[in-house]
Specification:
Rossmann fold; globular; five-stranded mixed sheet; 38% helix; alpha/beta
Length: 211
């Protein structure tokens, strides 16, 4: 039986492969294989479905995670994704990669990643908003020194819901600093939503110039 690909195991292999090229104490490599914190919560949500003209309500539980890898360089930084195939292994691998990306670009952030195991296409706008707010409610004590952002399945609008819920709960004067990728009317930055795709385009454009 073919072994399932593991993003975290792949990261560990890559980390071991560079040990001969980078002269650093062994404890540095060992620490990068570990995690500062891994959190898992369950989010209960009342789902309303219409069938034969009648509404039916039922309770569904959505597993949710936040993985904080390393904050030596600064606050944890990483997106929150919402989709059915979210797994802890994937989030662990992505959190490690975020640590490396920030370090390589000399940014004052550590690495983190979060996720909710849900299909956003099966939830209406109101249900998604409640899911986003419930994520913050259950993760609130773990979000100090952590800066989440949008990711797959998690829109700018949902980050706006998370930011608003965080602000309500904490009443922090600088709550706007707790999330990036917010809507423009919530202290968001113009161009943030298309930044990833635009960056990919610039890389592609530069590569085609060399052909």
């Amino acid at each position: 039986m073919e072994k399932k690909f593991s993003l975290y195991e792949n990261f560990l292999q890559q980390l071991d492969s560079v040990r001969g090229y980078i002269k650093l104490p062994s404890f540095v490599f060992s620490s990068l294989k570990e995690f500062d914190h891994i959190f898992r919560v369950d989010i209960p949500l009342v789902i309303v479905k219409k069938k034969y003209g009648k509404e039916k309500k039922f309770l569904k539980i959505f597993p949710a995670f936040r993985v904080q890898h390393n904050n030596v360089l600064g606050p944890y930084k990483g997106g929150i994704r919402i989709y059915p195939a979210v797994s802890l292994d994937e989030l662990k691998g992505l959190a490690c990669i975020m640590t490396m990306k920030n370090a390589l670009l000399d940014l004052p952030f550590g690495g983190a990643k979060g996720g909710i195991m849900a299909n956003p296409k099966e939830l209406d706008k109101k249900e998604l908003a409640q899911l986003a707010r419930s994520y913050v409610q259950r993760m609130i004590k773990f979000l100090k020194g952590d800066i989440p952002a949008p990711d797959a399945g998690c829109s700018t609008e949902l980050i706006g819901e998370m930011y608003d819920e965080y602000k309500k709960i904490t009443n922090e004067k600088e709550a706007r600093l707790a999330f990036t990728g917010k809507p423009l009317d919530c202290w968001g930055i113009e161009g943030r939503e298309e930044a990833t795709a635009l960056g990919g385009f610039y890389v592609f454009e530069r590569l085609t110039e060399k052909i």
